[in-house]
């Protein structure tokens, strides 16, 4: 019986973790990212692959404005 589930924030895949197995073995190959929001306030995100992690970063990270990057060409 699956006691816990890890959700991939990139593709939505769910991986069950039985109480009889170690999470580090059940989630082998997964990437877990911790976002420190404040004292004792941590948000954790799970990703089943580097592709899912990269997709999530691309969708959620702020990008550098193109006009700023183009200004380097003028120097």
UniProtKB/TrEMBL annotation:
Q: Which organism is it from?
A: Dehalogenimonas etheniformans
What does UniProt list as this organism's lineage? Answer: Bacteria, Bacillati, Chloroflexota, Dehalococcoidia, Dehalococcoidales
Q: What is this protein called?
A: MYM-type domain-containing protein
């Amino acid at each position: 019986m699956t006691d816990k589930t890890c959700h991939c924030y990139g593709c939505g895949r769910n991986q069950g973790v039985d109480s009889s197995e170690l999470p580090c073995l059940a989630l082998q190959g997964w990437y877990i990212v911790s976002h420190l929001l404040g004292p004792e306030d941590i948000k954790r995100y799970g990703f089943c692959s580097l592709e899912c992690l990269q997709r999530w970063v691309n969708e959620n990270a702020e990008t550098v404005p193109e006009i700023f990057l183009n200004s380097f060409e003028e120097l």
